[in-house]
Write a structure and sequence with these properties.
Blueprint lengths: L3 E9 L5 H11 L3 E13 L2 E7 L2 H12 L6 E4 L5 H14 L5 E3 L14 H11 L5 E2 L3 H7 L8 H12 L5 E4 L8 E8 L4 E7 L9 H14 L4 H17 L22
Parallel strand pairs: 1-2, 1-4, 4-5, 5-6
Antiparallel strand pairs: 2-3, 7-8, 8-9
Length: 268
Amino acid sequence: MTPIAVTIAGSDSSGGAGIQADLKTFAALRVYGASVITALTAQNTRGVQAIHDVPADFVAAQIDSVFSDLAVGAVKIGMLSQVATIEAVAAGLARHAGSIPIVLDPVMVATSGDRLISEAAVEALRRHLLPLADLVTPNLPETATLIAEPDATSENAAVAQGRRLLALGARAVLVKGGHGDGDESVDHLMGTDGTLRRFAAPRIRTRNTHGTGCTLSSAVAAGLARRLSIVEAVAEAKRYVSAAIAAADGVAIGHGHGPVHHFHAVWR
């Protein structure tokens, strides 16, 4: 069967992150993409100018529509800015997801620095969505926010925070190190079985990193939709995102933080 992944996230009008980045990533990795849009943003490479939340009942209607017809192989969850939206997504997945793998990217702040989620929604995300997730993919600041601690400043601290996040209910956590220092960007994957795996790639010096978090989580979901294991899907996603960042300066998009190049393997 054709592998299908669904993204439940917000729209980025400039095309570099959110739903648009997710669908590009699915396509680049040979997966059919469907979508449930949770919010519209007026956004470009310089920042987020406005957010319009989709009513929670309409988010639920989209979930029912997609899952009642498509043979979904994986779910990626991105921007959910309101408590009612989070509750609608959690209820919808409880109705339909069953054993379908779920990747939760706890999007809180855009690359531009603009906040994308309310404080109350952070607690709702902890309570309703972390227990549903097969994999959570926070960056260092998101990890710290979810467990109410300062940002980790070393690999050991990042792993320790990831384990504390794991205790909140997810089956696995991937703490992304893109916001760290050093010559390598290091991600740590840990599971409830006590396993720990380290994924490292050379740190690429570029300002064009818009959409990296969305892209990585979607790439993992694409791998899971193609029946890869979580370890295999994370390894593939890390390679894909690193190549997309390396090619980002080859496309001139906007005047701020430009997007990564999702189709680097196809055109330059």
